[in-house]
Amino acid sequence: MTSFFKGFCLSCVLISPWCFAGGGGELRPAQQYDVELNTISMLEAETLLGKPGVYFFDVNTLEIWAQGYIPGAIFFNVRNWRELLPKNKDAVMVFYCANRLCTSSAVAAREVMKQGYTGVRQMPDGIYGWRLSGRVTEKP
Known about the structure:
alpha/beta, globular
């Protein structure tokens, strides 16, 4: 056997235990949520921009927020987020984060729904989808 082949086989044996997803922990069922999200498309969200009683909440990190956000959006990734919510529990609120892989806006929307708010919407495409589509953004 060549030294390359021996090295390759040895590396496969040494690395293989760490190549499995899940880190070797106990298997358990995936978390299920008792509250179903009401999603909104970017086109629908754009029609709501600037309307009275409609709130946009950006659930991104401060670094992503600083690169630009949906006009009028409120930075939501703060400890006192409950103070940012409108008094009207029927107000339309659109939550978004980075993109479809980001779950922060879904978590935030579910938490707000648990507070009794009924007009909660979540925009899965996030700010990256918004920007890629050429829609207007603001910067702090």
